[in-house]
Amino acid sequence: MGSDLRTNIHAMFYLTKAAVPHMKSGSAIINTTSINADSPSPHLLAYATTQGAFQNFTAGLAQMLADKGTRANSVAPAPIWTSLIPSTMPEENVRNFGKQVPTQRPGQPAELATAYVMLADPMSSYVSGATIAVTGGKPII
């Protein structure tokens, strides 16, 4: 679990630390977390822990950077179909991938795009510290 935490959390922290001094007022930071931040899968404990940290980091960052005019938000997808799915799971899991959400299917990467575009849009200047759930109908609270 230690290496997952170092790899995932340290990368986000140090990348943000390096980028923030170069960001102008009106900039937006958009992090990716997961539904596992709010609804952790026990067999993905290390991953779920890092996703909770991403969400918490983003919420705190939004408050810290508000006076500089920089927004920070995150997108939390549920199961999304990528090329890694069939190459990293047993066939039975692949067949059932995404069926645990109300839409009973995995999302497609393109279905995430509008959430990122909305958060990047200057017209979303009042949205900061938010996590946008792209979860096939499964709520995060």
TrEMBL record:
Keywords: Oxidoreductase. It comes from the Bacteria. InterPro entries: NAD(P)-bd_dom_sf, SDR_fam. One of its GO terms (molecular function) is oxidoreductase activity, acting on CH-OH group of donors. Belongs to the short-chain dehydrogenases/reductases (SDR) family. This is NAD(P)-dependent dehydrogenase (Short-subunit alcohol dehydrogenase family). It comes from Rhizobium wenxiniae.
